[in-house]
Amino acid sequence: MEDKELKGKEYWNSTRKNSGKGSRMTSEEIEKINQWIEMPSQLSNFDVRELSTNSHYAIFALYDITKELKVEDAVKPGIAFQYLKKRYKNVPIDQKQFSNIFAGKNNKKYFERTSEGLYYLTPEGENIAKEWMAEN
C-alpha cells in the first residue's frame, strides 16, 4: 500500500556521514596548541598526578588555557585535552574519558558551554583551580 500524498525521507538513499570527523582538530588548532606549549605558565611545574578526579584534569586544562595563558576565552574539549597531554605528558586519562567529563551532569557546576560548543570554567571551577595554585 502506497500513499502518494505522504512524503518522507528516503533514508536508504542518503550517504552516511562519519560523525567523528567534526571533532578532529585542524592543522591550525594543532599549531595553536604548539604555540601555547611554548608560552610560560605558572602551572608548568604543577604535578598533574596530584589531581584526584577526571573532572579535575579538565578544570586544570581550562584554567591553564583561559586564565593563566589567557589565549582563549573558551575551547573545545579536544583542544584542551591535547594541550594537557602535550604539556603535562603524564596525564592518566584518555581523550574519551576527558570528553565525557563535559557531558556529565555532576560537572555542570564547573563548566559552561557556549553556543559554538566551546567550554569555559564557572566561578566554582575557577575557585578549585585557584586553591591548587595557593597550595603550590
The helix count comes to 5
- Count of individual domains: 1
Tell me the name of the CATH homologous superfamily: Winged helix-like DNA-binding domain superfamily/Winged helix DNA-binding domain
What is the level 1 CATH name? Mainly Alpha
* Unreliable sequence segments: none
Strand share of the residues?
Answer: under 5%
Report how far apart the termini are.
73 Å
The helical percent reads 40-55%
How many individual β-strands? 2
Rg measurement, Å:
19 Å
Major pleated sheet = 2 strands, antiparallel
Global mean pLDDT:
87
Describe this structure in words.
By secondary structure, the protein is mainly alpha-helical. It has one domain (27-34, 47-135): Orthogonal Bundle (Arc Repressor Mutant, subunit A). The protein has helices spanning 27-38, 54-68, 77-87, 95-103, 123-135, and strands at 111-113, 119-121. The chain has a two-stranded antiparallel sheet. A hairpin with a 5-residue loop joins strand 1 (111-113) and strand 2. Helix 2 (54-68) packs across helix 4 (95-103) and helix 3 crosses helix 4 (95-103). The chain starts with 26 loop residues before the first helix and ends with a helix. The model has no long low-confidence stretch (mean pLDDT 87).
